[in-house]
From TrEMBL:
Source organism, top-level taxon: Bacteria
EC number: 2.7.7.38
Record carries keyword tRNA-binding: no
Keyword Cytoplasm: yes
Record-stated family: Belongs to the KdsB family.
HAMAP family per UniProt: KdsB
Name used for this protein in its record: 3-deoxy-manno-octulosonate cytidylyltransferase
PANTHER family, alphabetized: 3-DEOXY-MANNO-OCTULOSONATE CYTIDYLYLTRANSFERASE, 3-DEOXY-MANNO-OCTULOSONATE CYTIDYLYLTRANSFERASE, MITOCHONDRIAL
Pathway: Nucleotide-sugar biosynthesis; CMP-3-deoxy-D-manno-octulosonate biosynthesis; CMP-3-deoxy-D-manno-octulosonate from 3-deoxy-D-manno-octulosonate and CTP: step 1/1
Location in the cell: Cytoplasm
EC category name: transferase
Length: 249
């Protein structure tokens, strides 16, 4: 599967140095390269994007990407979330679709990203403000883990809500439901991203600390695409060890 060719598509990788749960996680060693370099190279390898940039508030991360021959942009302002950081960076760039690749997701691959971009050519594309990925959770430990953001959708796969809590809550133990983890990779229409940048954070986003809730609170439509990608987002030192093991194997 190839990416749509009549839309200009770029990838932006927001990268903070001072992550609250695992400071400096993007500069940790992962098989001889930093986590952020691994993620940048994985995005380039897909060949789905006209350009790939790391957008950061950190001179350390900026210098790391430049030293590797990559493209990086320094943020001019302080930002609460990755979407704000990307919006500032793309404000004056002529682009149709902006893909937000999380800096702590070094195992992204082409097929899932291509599926994500494909929705902008489906029959309901005119209803889609942004699209993102979800994958089934298989263990109770993962379902209960607040570091795994869960998502529920309507019958057309548009997101209804995201939460760190297990959703749906299964009161009826006979019900046949699947819990889905939200993978923090987004494809935005540029206008949706710029709208987000101008709109203040509301209560639900502030409570959960999940930025995509802001889109729902302001009535934007998020199309969710199911993937079998078993990615490891690096939120904790334990996640980093899992990533190192996966890379070795």
């Amino acid at each position: 599967m190839s990416a749509p060719t009549s839309l200009k598509v770029i990838a932006m990788i927001p990268a903070r140095y001072e992550a609250s749960r695992f400071p400096a996680k993007l500069m940790q060693d992962l098989g001889g390269k930093t986590v952020i370099t691994r993620t940048y190279e994985a995005a380039l390898k897909t060949k789905l994007f006209q350009e790939v940039y790391v957008v950061t508030d950190s001179e350390i991360i900026f210098n790391e990407i430049i030293a590797q021959g990559g493209k990086a942009i320094m943020s001019k302002k302080s930002h609460e979330c990755g979407s704000d950081r990307i919006a500032e960076a793309v404000k004056d760039i002529d682009v149709d679709i902006v893909v937000n690749v999380q800096g702590d997701e070094p195992f992204i691959e082409k097929e899932s990203l291509a599926d994500l971009l494909e929705v902008f050519y489906e029959k309901d594309a005119h209803h889609i403000d942004l699209a993102s990925l979800k994958t089934a959770l298989e263990t109770e430990e993962d379902i209960l883990n607040p570091n795994h953001v869960k998502v529920i959708t309507n019958k057309n796969d548009f997101a209804l809500y995201f939460s760190r809590s297990p959703i749906p809550f299964v009161r009826n133990k006979q019900a046949n439901v699947t819990h889905y983890k939200h993978i923090g990779i987004y494809a935005f229409r540029k206008q949706a991203l710029m709208d987000f940048y101008r709109l203040p954070m509301l209560g639900l986003e502030n409570a959960e600390k999940i930025e995509c809730i802001r889109y729902l609170e302001y009535g934007k439509n998020i199309k969710m695409v199911e993937t079998n990608l078993k990615t490891i987002g690096i939120d904790t030192p334990e996640d980093l060890e899992k990533a190192r093991k996966l890379l070795r194997n």
